[in-house]
Amino acid sequence: MTENHDTTGESGIENDPDVTRNPGAVNVSEDRLFELLDRYVTTLHSDDTQSRSAIIQRNPDLGELLACLDSLEHLAPLRPSRRGPENETGSVLDGIVAEPTAADQMSDAPAEFGKYVLFEEVGRGGMGVVYRAKQTDLDRVVALKMILSSRFASEEEIQRFYGEARAAGRLRHPNIVGIHEVGELNGQHYFAMDYVEGESLEESLQTGPLAANEAVECLQTIARAVHHLHENQIVHRDLKPSNILIGESGEPILTDFGLAKLFESNSAQTRTGTIIGTPSYMSPEQAGGEASRVSPRSDVYSLGAILYKMLTGRPPFQRGNPLDTLVEVMEGEPTLPTRLNRSIPRELERICLRCLEKSPEKRYRTAAALADDLERFLNGEPVEARQTGVISRIRRWGRREPALASRLGALFVASLIVQITYVVRENGDFPFHVKVMSLFGLWTVVAVVFQQFLKRRYLAGFTRFAWAAADAILLTTLLFIAEGPIGPLLIGYPVLIAASGLFFRVRLVVFMTCVSLLSYGVLTLLRGDMLEMPPQYPVIYAAVLAVVGFIVGYQVYRIRVLSRHFEHRRLP
Q1: pTM reported for the whole predicted model
Q2: Could you tell me where the DSSP H helices lie in 232-312?
Q3: CATH annotation of 85-194
Q4: Which terminus of the chain, N or C, has fewer Cβ atoms within 10 Å?
């Protein structure tokens, strides 16, 4: 009784109305067929032989198809053991979260792979999985990396896998992981490399930022190793804390060359339009898909982002999704490190910010030049990174707080026009002039206050909508008190709708469109001269506002769809 109950319960097929029990004519609808196959695959992964046999017995006409699934399961790549406790939240080498599967819950018993004995999985990324292993012929512990897709890997994946091995294999540096052997066994591509006993820099930073001198010494060592890459005509392109391992002696060791690019390479991954790297640590030219502009200075930018993380405990740019992060990398400015950690010396902040310059030409020319400047800092000598000028600081502030900067810029221009007009007119209306300038002053104060709220993450969502409503109300007030025809000034509503799209929030665009339409309707009722217009004019204008809102919202929606696609696909 119990056995029969378990069997039918696991398979879920016994009472399935879409599956006919007649062995001579199995009739399975398309939806139910997929569900049945899914259940069968689940029994394969869970090694539930009873339920698997029950499904086969009840559906004999599907025997060949189910047997095919059995064969595919046998071709799956070997997983000798479950992940170690240090990797439950992500990969040691690639920093990419990989959800444990049923196959990951296998026995801890070592598995043989040619002349290697695999002990445990220590890292997993978008393309490969890494095991701690023992090379039996030389009696040494190594890290063995295998391509995830095994025999089903595409030619491009295989080329990239061997490209990583070649890139690292040609290097000889104490702070770069060494490659011992590259090969293939039974269709499984692999390479063996140094095994580093210890945690990654990403893991060590989980407890908080490092002291200034400790961070400088660590980055100086990494920068020297990166310069060695560049001397060998290699750009890493994926420098980040999770790709830096901390050895037993505390020395950082650079690893993971899956995205490394040879200077003379022209592979599919280096073509313009391909976004390569990790958003929070990639350079603006990488974020923009400008592969032709990727150079050693791109790695210098990533080194600056790593230094920022070591000093502040967070990367320079890290938003809720990859799209927002990429936009910040390309257009924004990071919060000054000293605002996040007041113990950071100003000279070190200047070094970090020089690495993070948007223009590659403004960064350190080489990773060695960065290491030299870090050494000057440690020795108490003047650093090469100088204090930026006023114009540069204003530009950086504008990138750091674009919403406030754009509003203050618009208010300044409008105030200047009003002031010039008042001066030119000999008999200007002083009370009206004071009223308008006071409104501009109030608008400035409101913008500054909302910017402060916007900096608080838990208030950011509400602040965007409140700020949009405040802008519409203030614009409507300005148009209401304005003297004479206000036709040209009505352009303000479409501008507000378009500006709301810069936040990449569809709901915000819809909200701004509705508020603008409502504000325009109220303005039409309050101003007598607008009621005297032909009735079709307000209707046409309202329709134009709705169309502008639809276009902006639709474009934001399209970008968001691409962003979700980007989130569910790992970077190349």
Answers
A1: 0.67
A2: 284-287, 296-312
A3: 3.30.200.20
A4: N
